[in-house]
C-alpha cells in the first residue's frame, strides 16, 4: 500500500512503516472496506439460499464473481468506494453502491440487486467487519509476533538455566538465582497472557437497526431470522453469534481482547526494564554493528535503545488499548458514533504493540551473556549466604539463628573468610558444617536450573 513517509503524521506510517507492513492491510481503512465487501457479499449469497420469495439461489458463476470481488479487492477498489463516499457522505452506503455497480452487465445479479444490504443497518456490516479485522490481525500478525518472543525467551531460559546470578530485591543483593530461571519466570507469565488473548471469542450480530430483526420480520415474517443470522455469522464468517444487542454489538469482547493485550504488554514493559538494568550492571553485553552510533558525543557508548523503544511503544499501545477497552462498551441508549470514531484507532493501538514486539525481539537478538561479570558480582556478595546458614541453624535448633546472622552481616561488607569463620564456630554436625563451608554464592541457587530447563516443555 502507498503511504507517506517523511510527511506522515504518525510514526507508524512514517519512520516505522516498513515494520508494520503485515498489519496495515488488515487494520487500515482499506482493511475495513475489504471486510465490509466480504460481509455484504456473504449476506447477499446467504439470502439467496434462504428460500425467500423473489430471490432464487444464485448460480455458481454469480457466486464466483461475488467472492472474486473479495479475493481480488484492491487499493483501486478502495479508492473507488471513497469516491462514492464523497457523494453519499456515508461509508457503508458507499460500499453498497460500489457493489451494486459491479452487477452491471450481470442480469442475474442485477435483478436481485436490492437484496444487497437487505434489512441491514450499517452496524450489522461494521461490527462483523471489525471482528473479521481483529481475527485476521490476531491470527496472522499479533500472535505470531508474540510467539517469536516467547520462543526466543524459552531458548534463552534453557540455555542459561544453570548460569548463576545475583538476585536483587528492593535493589539490594538477595539470594542467588540463575539467568535462565529469571527468563523462565517471564516465559511463564507470557504463556498465560498469550492464551488469554488467543481464547477471547470474537462476537458479531446481524439483527437490524435496534437488535430485534424489525425490518427482516416485516418483510418475511415466516423466516427464522435469528437462526439465519447465526448461520451467516458462525458458519460463513467464522465468528461467534451474539443474540442480545442494541443497534451496536456492545464491544465487551473487544474490551476483553484489548485488556488481554494490555496485560501482556505490561509484562514486557517489566521485562524490558529488567533487561535494561542487567545491561547497565554488565550482565549482558550488546553485539556491535558496524556504522552504528551510540552517542553523538561519547564514542564508547552502546545504548540499550531496543529495550527503551520497546518500553515506550508498549506504553503508547497500552494507553490506547486501555481507552478502547474502557470506552467501547459504553453507548448512549441504542448507539452513538463515539465507538465508530475510536474504533478507527484499533490499528494504531495494535500497531504500537507490534512495534514494541519488534523492538524487543531485535534487542534480544543482540544480547550476549557476560558470565565473568555475573561471577564477579556473586563473589563480591557473600552476605547472601546468611539465609542459607540461618535456615540450617533453625533445622538443628541452634539459638536465635536469624538474630545471630542479622547482627553479624547486616550493613557490613562480607567476605568468604568472614562467612566461613562464622560457620566454623557453629555447633553443627560435621557433615552440615562441611556442606556450608563448601558453599559459595554461585552454588546457592536452589532448584532454579531445574525450573528453567523445563520451561516450554
TrEMBL record:
Keyword set, alphabetical order: Lyase, Purine biosynthesis
Signal sequence extent: none
Pathway membership: Purine metabolism; AMP biosynthesis via de novo pathway; AMP from IMP: step 2/2; Purine metabolism; IMP biosynthesis via de novo pathway; 5-amino-1-(5-phospho-D-ribosyl)imidazole-4-carboxamide from 5-amino-1-(5-phospho-D-ribosyl)imidazole-4-carboxylate: step 2/2
InterPro entries: Fumarase/histidase_N, Fumarate_lyase_CS, Fumarate_lyase_fam, Fumarate_lyase_N, L-Aspartase-like, Pur_lyase, PurB_bact, PurB_C
Single Gene Ontology BP annotation: IMP biosynthetic process
Domain Fumarate lyase N-terminal: 14-312
Family: Belongs to the lyase 1 family. Adenylosuccinate lyase subfamily.
Descriptive protein name: Adenylosuccinate lyase
Organism (species): Ideonella aquatica
Gene transcribed to yield this protein: purB
